[in-house]
């Protein structure tokens, strides 16, 4: 007859059996889902968790961040969005990289990209200054560790779109001084640095000459090179130039989304591993499952036809009730298991040392998978990995050790250039 354990006691026992440098003595795959989830919550609380990409700053800009808490205050639970302090603490998220997102459209107006970057950096700093008991800036792995010990959520910053560098190489050092610790070379369009995966126009067939200088200068000052969003040729060119490991702050495996260049092919995953870099898995529906887009299109088409046939609008309570019921019955969203599939694929292809988490929370709208709708749900992913036989040490590598290794390597190289 099976012996049933008190879940909290079991979690304590499992964690007590795990010491640094030793393998777990408990086979997590034999536990119930409820038992695994409780253990996952404990792991999330006790392990530093880094997320490579959270679009909170731009969400605050759109939402009208104020000191008076009139519009958007993420120090308390918010009714929408994917990130706030209470939910981050529930999910064990300790260091979400704040995305200093620069829309590609601003590239047409010189100076506007840099101005927006400065504004979003100030907004992020203001968040830490306004709620110093909850948030703190972080410019290094050591800062994250200090903030974690104090129970604070770190706010490291990465700039999404190198267009904010404008045409001045000196801005690389400038933004390092402002606290930026990675730069995504391109976004939705080719820029002065190189070609984008989303852009059908290929201006350089990879990096421009200026882009080559940018990558070298990022190495010199200590900014991680982020290859999410770039074209395959830009990706290869950057790897050929960089002297240190790179990251992909929020990308997934192209194996599950054939033809979607924004994700990484097996060839690029292997090349990044050879470089020592880290691929941080994006959670967005279109990133993790090619069936998602087709499924949402089908649901959307049905609901538009239903409105027309019944002379309803989106605001009508009758339509809203029907839409909720229909969407639930025809749910197009992938699940947390699909995110784990991407992690499995990268692990099987190149090893556990090259995987991280880059959710794209607050950046991919309502496309997030069932079980990973906001930052409180990270334990669901950890529990799924435990179910698949991942060890605590492997999970710690995914949560922070791998990206810390790259971050420190970039710091060390830059220190040697001074």
Brief descriptors of the model:
TIM Barrel; 9% strand; disordered N terminus; 418 residues
How would you describe the overall organization of this protein?
This protein has 418 residues and is α/β, with parallel strands linked by helices. The protein has two domains: 327 residues, Metal-dependent hydrolases (TIM Barrel), CATH 3.20.20; 44 residues, no CATH class. Helix content is 46%, strand content 9%. Strands 1-2-5-6-7 form a five-stranded parallel β-sheet, sandwiched between helices. A three-stranded parallel β-sheet has the order 8-9-10. A two-stranded parallel sheet has the order 3-4. Strand 8, helix 10 and strand 9 form a beta-alpha-beta unit. Helix 2 crosses helix 15, helix 3 packs across helix 5 and helix 9 runs parallel beside helix 10. The longest helix has 25 residues.
Draw up the topology in text:
Layout: H1 7-16, H2 33-46, E1 50-54, H3 56-63, H4 85-91, E2 95-101, H5 112-130, E3 135-137, H6 141-149, E4 153-155, E5 157-160, H7 170-177, E6 180-184, H8 209-221, E7 224-226, H9 232-241, E8 247-248, H10 266-275, E9 278-281, H11 285-288, H12 291-309, H13 317-329, H14 336-350, E10 355-357, H15 378-387, H16 392-416
Parallel strand pairs: 1-2, 2-5, 3-4, 5-6, 6-7, 8-9, 9-10
What would you say about this model in short?
This protein has 418 residues and is an alpha/beta fold. The chain has 16 helices and 10 strands.
């Amino acid at each position: 007859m099976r012996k049933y354990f008190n879940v909290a006691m079991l979690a304590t026992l499992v964690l007590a059996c795990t010491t640094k440098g030793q393998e777990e003595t408990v086979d997590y795959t034999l536990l119930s889902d409820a038992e695994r989830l409780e253990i996952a919550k404990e792991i999330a609380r006790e392990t530093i968790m880094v997320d490579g990409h959270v679009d909170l700053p731009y969400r605050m800009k759109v939402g009208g961040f104020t000191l008076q808490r009139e519009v958007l205050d993420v120090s308390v639970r918010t009714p929408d969005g994917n990130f706030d302090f209470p939910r981050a603490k529930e999910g064990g998220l300790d260091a979400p990289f704040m995305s200093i997102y620069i829309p590609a459209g601003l590239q047409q107006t010189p100076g506007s990209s840099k101005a927006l970057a400065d504004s979003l950096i100030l907004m992020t700093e203001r968040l830490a200054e306004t709620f110093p008991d909850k948030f703190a800036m972080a410019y290094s792995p050591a800062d994250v560790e200090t903030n974690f010990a104090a129970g604070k959520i770190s706010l490291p910053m990465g700039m999404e779109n190198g267009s904010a560098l404008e045409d001045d190489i000196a801005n690389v050092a400038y933004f390092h001084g402002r606290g930026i610790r990675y730069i995504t070379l391109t976004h939705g369009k080719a820029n002065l640095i190189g070609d984008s995966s989303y852009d059908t126009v290929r201006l350089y067939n990879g990096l421009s000459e200026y882009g080559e200088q940018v990558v070298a200068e990022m190495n010199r000052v200590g900014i991680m090179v982020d290859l999410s969003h770039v074209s395959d040729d830009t990706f290869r060119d950057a790897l050929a130039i960089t002297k240190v490991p790179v990251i992909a702050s929020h990308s997934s495996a192209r194996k599950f989304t054939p033809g979607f260049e924004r994700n990484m092919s097996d060839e690029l995953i292997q090349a990044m591993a050879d470089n020592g870099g880290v691929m941080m898995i994006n959670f967005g529906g279109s990133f993790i499952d090619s069936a998602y887009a087709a499924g949402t299109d089908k649901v959307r088409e049905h609901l538009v036809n239903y409105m027309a046939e019944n002379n309803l609008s989106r605001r009508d309570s009758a339509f809203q009730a029907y839409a909720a019921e229909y969407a639930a019955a025809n749910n197009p969203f992938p699940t947390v298991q699909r995110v784990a599939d991407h992690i499995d694929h990268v692990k099987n292809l190149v090893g556990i040392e090259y995987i991280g988490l880059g959710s794209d929370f607050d950046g991919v709208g309502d496309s997030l998978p069932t079980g990973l709708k906001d930052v409180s749900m990270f334990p669901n992913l950890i529990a799924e990995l435990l179910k698949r036989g991942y060890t605590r040490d492997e999970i710690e590598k995914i949560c922070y050790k791998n990206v810390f290794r790259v971050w420190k390597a970039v710091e060390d190289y830059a220190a040697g250039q001074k």
